[in-house]
Design goal:
- Chain B: This is Hydrogenase-4 component E.
- With 675 residues, chain A is mainly α.
- Chain A folds into four domains: 202 residues, no CATH class; 275 residues, no CATH class; 26 residues, no CATH class; 50 residues.
- Helices cover 72% and strands 4% of the residues of chain A.
- In chain A, helix 17 runs antiparallel to helix 18.
- In chain B, helix 2 packs antiparallel against helix 3, helix 2 runs parallel beside helix 8 and helix 3 runs parallel beside helix 9.
- Classes of the chains: A mainly alpha (675), B mainly alpha (217).
- At the A-B interface, helix 27 of A face helix 4 and helix 7 of B.
Chain lengths: 675, 217
């Protein structure tokens, strides 16, 4: 019997996860951090091997009936799972290595370290699940581990606690939606394995399927940071320890996309058009809203969290477009859009890992995430600045960056999709193209701000002046992620065959011919654009320019040194620089109606005269408007209902017993009457 | 109809009658006497079932039930009363007449609900099944409508007698080991409730449960 590669790799990953968790709890302090980090990195590598093997065409299916009572555990790995397995595994590896250096400082307890490998393994288990019950168990394991890791940062801090509460509530409401939807689907199909659902789904009435899809869109969408349900992201990501933020933002949120693709496109066979138009609209809304908020954010990690909302919004647009095209009988276009979405997921994972790890190094070195107080890190942290710049290039979707090929492919598929008939489609597609263009432009401004005001120019605070370069293992982790970033930017064509296999799993009717077409199209993208050539030419031109300049200056004779022109008001100080706030001010003005910023000017007059000003304080905050308008009323209503319900519990034992007795009698009455 | 079936019906009828009588009497001391009677009826049910199915282990169960429910538990309750005379009044929240009417309604309900179970297998034991269900409901009614802690214990014992009777009648007897475990639980529960009653009396000077209303947050 030949060895099944994905299955073996997953088994190895399970063993490593248990070993790392045990090591975190039992190993002596001297070697603990290093041991857990190494084992977790190997666990990630095993996951990446499983994903790579699945992408290369190996499949795996297994049933372990004794592992859980009643339902057992069903596993299945195909190329679609492989994409998410490979991404999660690679991210786990890079962040675990980074975590060795990051965790050596104070503040990381044994329990937090033991949770890390469990969380990592749950990220592999979700895409490998082969039945509804296994998926739900893995999903809940993932939610609980990530929640505990979010609050492991500094449990005493009020902000961390608040972030934890928000995350806990949102993730569990999402779970309720997913649970309800999947149980409904399973009950209608009389089976819970994916293989059975795929066959039975065609016989379910469209109304039930539509209801299930709406529930799944809410549940999986909230995990993927879809627009009105994104509120947990900008709270939880900044407060979590940086490797945890990286793992959540680069690997966990992707699984929301996985759920939608797996159930919406694969198992329920694309369904109706309105499903996917809704998905596209919400995706475009998330993309624009996320990047507008990111453009005006001062907190580096909050900025990155909103950027996650933007990028996952773009992925949702791709998934939605794939559904629309599939529904209207254009499988070739559907495959192209889905390939763009999956490629963007991978690119986002790569550059977001780099950026969050870079932000973690900055936080580690300076103790602050406020861009207004940073600056001037380039000289003191050259490596971190370098990798952050590479990640920012990717996030800005400029040619040479990781996200450029995928966004370009996405735009291509949407523009070709204008041939699809239907009034709504004709309206939604061009608007979406515009939204993608707008978000790409704003992303450039956002990441110029993050890199320029955060790392370049002069330091604006003592903390930034005294920054130090990240430790060795942290540099290794960042370097690995940056290498993945560069590979995706330069050689996207290499992913062609793998993506063709993955999309063939999800788009029924795609068939090998169409998939081969996509592989060709991606390769064609590689050859017509040839990002490798673009980068080589740009670098070559820069080198030539530099050499030419040197030649010219030598011919001109002795170089004269003069003081820097400072408008006659020396000396130049850090207070004259652009800060993050001032850089974003024009954007904030443009989007004033969308953002509704709150600014406050507080003038204190002198004690002896009202006409003399002693002090002026200006403060500005950009609260999340969706949160204000949508969440606060809900929270208030729930609180009021809770207070009103206190009257039900007045402390009388008889009343409590009476509630129970009354319920039993009413139930029996219903039972008697219903027969 | 055989002799044994008649005996079973008689025991079940007595079982229900004792429950109604406990609801009727306001004096806790009298209630414990009826509780003993109910324990004997329950033991008789177990013994008759044992004779019917020729299972000698059920005689052991019957003996255990008689010992615990007819002798030990009522004695424990009675000894708690002896400490304070004023606790003898069970102080119902609704008057006895209304309680009895409610009990009639509950018995009717139990018989209606149990119909499918009886139809499933028309044996004398299955026909007696609604009796057990009725006693469960009457026990709950006592828990809800009696103020004093001691009558709560009586209600709890009634509830448990009902559950045991349903188990005997539906499963044609319970293995000795299971019955042993259940009995041990019951004994512990009654002991804990007794301790609680005594503590309440020390703290509040009475055992009216509504005095505890102030304890909530």
């Amino acid at each position: 019997m030949s060895v099944n590669l994905p299955g073996t790799a997953l088994a190895v990953a399970a063993g490593l996860s248990a070993g790392a968790a045990a090591a975190a709890l039992c190993a002596p302090d001297r070697i603990r951090v290093r041991l857990v980090g190494t084992l977790s990195a190997l666990l990630g590598a095993a996951g990446a091997v499983a994903g790579g093997a699945a992408l290369a065409g190996h499949t795996y299916a297994a049933r372990l009936p004794d592992l859980f009572a009643l339902s057992g555990v069903t596993l299945q790995v195909d190329a679609l799972s492989g994409v998410f397995l490979a991404i999660a595994g690679a991210v786990v590896s890079a962040t675990s290595i980074y975590g060795i250096g990051y965790a050596s400082g104070p503040g990381r307890g044994r329990w937090a370290q033991a949770l890390w490998p469990l969380f990592a393994f749950s990220l592999l288990l979700v895409p490998a699940a082969g039945s509804v019950s296994t998926l739900l168990v893995a999903w809940e394991l993932m939610a609980l581990c990530s929640l505990l890791l979010v609050v492991s940062g500094d449990p005493a801090s009020g902000r961390v606690r608040e972030a934890g509460v928000w995350y806990a509530v949102m993730t569990h409401l999402g779970l309720v939606a997913i649970l309800t939807g999947l149980l409904w689907l399973g009950a209608a199909a009389h089976t819970e394995t994916f293989a059975g659902l795929r066959i039975a789904a065609a016989g379910i009435s469209p109304a039930v399927r539509g209801g299930v899809f709406v529930l799944l869109l809410i549940g999986f969408g909230s995990k993927a940071g879809m627009a009105p349900l994104h509120a947990w992201l900008p709270r939880a990501h900044p407060e979590a320890p940086s490797p945890v933020s990286a793992l959540m933002s680069a690997a966990m949120v992707n699984l929301g996309i996985y759920g939608l693709v797996r159930f919406g496109l694969d198992l329920m066979g694309a369904g109706s058009r309105w499903w996917w138009l809704t998905t596209m609209t919400l995706g475009a809304l998330s993309a624009v809203y996320g990047i507008v908020q990111a453009a005006v954010a001062n907190d580096l990690k909050r900025l990155l969290a909103y950027s996650t909302v933007e990028n996952l919004g773009l992925v949702l647009v791709g998934v939605g477009a794939a559904g629309v095209f599939q529904d209207s009988g254009h499988p070739a276009l559907a495959v192209l859009a889905l390939a763009a979405a999956l490629l963007h997921t991978a690119a986002h994972a790569a550059f977001k890992t780099v950026l969050f790890l870079g932000a973690g190094s900055v936080l580690h070195a300076t103790g602050t995430r406020d861009l207004d107080e940073l600056g001037g890190l380039r000289t003191r942290m050259p490596v971190t600045t370098g990798v952050f710049a590479l990640g920012a290039l990717g996030a800005a979707a400029l040619p040479g960056g990781a996200a450029f090929p995928s966004e370009w492919l996405l735009l291509q598929s949407l523009i070709h999709g204008l041939a699809v008939p239907g009034t709504l489609v004709v309206v939604v597609l061009p608007v979406t193209v515009g939204a993608i263009a707008l978000s790409a432009g704003l992303a450039v401004a956002t990441f110029v701000k993050a890199l320029g005001t955060g790392f370049l120019a002069k330091a604006r605070s003592r903390a930034a002046e005294q920054a130090h370069e990240a430790r060795g293992s942290m540099r290794t982790g960042m370097g690995l992620a940056a290498a993945a970033c560069a590979a995706l930017a330069v050689l996207p064509g290499a992913a062609g065959p793998a993506l063709a296999r993955a999309t063939a799993c999800a788009v029924p009717g795609g068939g090998p011919r169409v998939s081969a077409g996509v592989a060709r199209q991606l390769t064609a993208l590689g050859s017509t654009l040839w990002p490798l050539m673009l980068v080589a030419v740009t670098l070559g031109a820069l080198v030539l320019l530099r050499a030419g300049l040197a030649l010219v200056s030598r011919r001109a004779g002795q170089r004269a040194t003069a003081p820097l022109w400072d408008c006659g008001a020396p000396p130049l100080t850090a207070r004259m620089e652009y800060t993050a706030t001032s850089f974003a001010e024009p954007l904030q003005r443009v989007f004033d109606d969308v953002l509704a910023p709150e600014s406050d000017l507080d003038v204190t007059p002198h004690a002896e005269s009202a006409y003399l000003v002693e002090r002026i304080a200006y403060s500005r905050a950009v609260p999340d408007r969706v949160e204000h308008r949508l969440y606060n009323p809900v929270v208030h209503t729930v609180r009021r209902a809770g207070l009103a319900a206190r009257a039900l519990a007045d402390g009388s034992v008889h009343r409590y017993l009476g509630y129970g007795f009354g319920s039993v009698v009413i139930l029996l009455l219903v039972l008697a009457a219903a027969r | 109809m055989s002799n044994r079936a008649e005996l079973l019906d008689l025991a079940a009828g007595l079982f229900l009658l004792c429950a109604v009588a406990i609801l009727w009497r306001r004096d806790v001391r009298a209630q414990t006497a009826w509780l003993s009677g109910q324990g004997i009826a329950l033991a008789a049910i177990a013994a008759i079932l044992g004779a019917q199915d020729a299972r000698p282990d059920l005689y052991g169960v019957a003996a255990g039930v008689a010992l615990l429910r007819a002798a030990l538990l009522p004695t424990l309750v009675r000894r708690a009363i002896a400490a304070r005379a004023e606790d003898r009044e069970s102080a119902p929240l609704i008057n006895v007449g209304a309680s009895l009417l409610a009990a009639v309604a509950l018995v009717l309900l139990a018989y209606t609900v149990a119909q499918p179970l009886v139809r499933l297998e028309d044996t004398p034991a299955a026909r007696a099944l609604p009796v057990g269900l009725s006693v469960v409901l009457i026990g709950l009614l006592i828990l809800v409508t009696r103020r004093k802690a001691l009558s709560q214990i009586v209600g709890f014992l009634l509830l448990d007698n009902g559950i045991t009777a349903v188990a005997f009648l539906a499963a044609a007897g319970v293995p000795l080991l299971v019955e042993f475990g259940v009995s041990f639980d019951l004994l512990l529960a009654v002991l804990v409730l007794r301790v609680l009653t005594a503590r309440m009396r020390n703290l509040f000077g009475g055992s009216d449960l509504d005095e505890m209303r102030e304890l909530r947050d």
